[in-house]
């Protein structure tokens, strides 16, 4: 394949670091043209030296100032708007969207508007702005290629298939670290316990969302928008081993699955090389060692975030924006030790109930509604 110039947005997070690992294994196929992150100057500076990226960006403007001093020959972009400008300045073959939270949306939209393919790890763009993101991609002809393991699995299962023949998407969930913990003990779990995911190495926000199952709720939206199915066609199935990354059922009852060890570098690499495949320096799957495999229905009573996601999906309008904005704030409060784990869904539900149902379908309205939901939850008090 021709060498691809990549702009990596969110380079200092878990997906960003693993993306650089994949890129370093295939210097003949990929080149890092630009790196951007939030505020982690030290990690970004190290990455800039290692990759020789010519374009650098930090959302934190004072940290970006330090970048200018340290890399006088690089083009440095500062602030949230700077990261958006960076997309058109770099003109990459592919943007990797790995910024955490709602902050990732504007740059992803800018890339798609410019007709640049986006390998997307960041969930909020498709949950809060799914229609806008997919319509923007359709207009320019750019593709959204999923990085997340379950979405990558579905993407691989339907490759070459007729989409009209899809009857169901079986979205697998590990169940998170508290799958077997009695529901009455959930209120007392600490951020450290919630951050210890049994199978996957991920960023802090996504790991907490995996523990509450909010993450699985968000993936229902991503499946709906990426693959054009209805919300009702997406069924969540708990599979603790995280070896089967998701399955697709077709109209003849045939079910196709994608399997592998839980290692994010596999779906990341596929998103970078798509539609081609490259070898990976990883151990092959050993089914006997990985099994036995179990499957179960998710416990919707113990994990209300899944139900709230379904409700927001059904209600449509601005509800999905409120869902993600409220969740982002609630997760921050939990990580800061200010609320209990079980307060997360309670706070999200209160924000959903307080929303007046106004639609939000352009970036400005979506941004405003997200900020409202974030503030609304940030100002709530815990019952503890
Ligand atoms: Mg996932």
Task: Write a structural description.
With 384 residues, the protein is an alpha/beta fold. It has a domain at 4-147: NAD(P)-binding Rossmann-like Domain (Rossmann fold), CATH 3.40.50. It is built from 16 helices and eleven strands. Strands 4-3-2-1-5-6-7 form a seven-stranded parallel β-sheet, with helices on both faces. Strand 3, helix 3 (61-70) and strand 4 (75-78) form a beta-alpha-beta unit. The chain is globular. Bound molecules: magnesium ion (MG). The site of magnesium ion (MG) has 4 residues, from helix 7.
Keywords:
Rossmann fold; alpha/beta; binds magnesium ion; 384 residues; 15% strand; 16 helices
Q: Mean pLDDT across all residues, rounded?
A: 96
Helix-residue proportion:
40-55%
N- and C-termini, Cα separation: 56 Å
Task: Return the string of H and E elements.
Answer: EHEHEHEHEHEHEHEHHHEEEHHHHHH
Task: Please describe the topology of this protein.
Elements: E1 4-9, H1 14-25, E2 30-37, H2 41-51, E3 55-58, H3 61-70, E4 75-78, H4 79-90, E5 94-97, H5 105-113, E6 117-120, H6 124-140, E7 144-146, H7 149-157, E8 166-173, H8 191-195, H9 204-212, H10 214-227, E9 234-238, E10 244-250, E11 255-259, H11 265-273, H12 287-290, H13 304-315, H14 319-335, H15 343-354, H16 363-378
Helix pairs in contact: 4-5, 5-6, 6-10, 6-14, 7-10, 10-13, 13-14, 13-15, 14-15, 14-16
Bound molecules: magnesium ion (MG).
The site of magnesium ion (MG) has 4 residues, from helix 7.
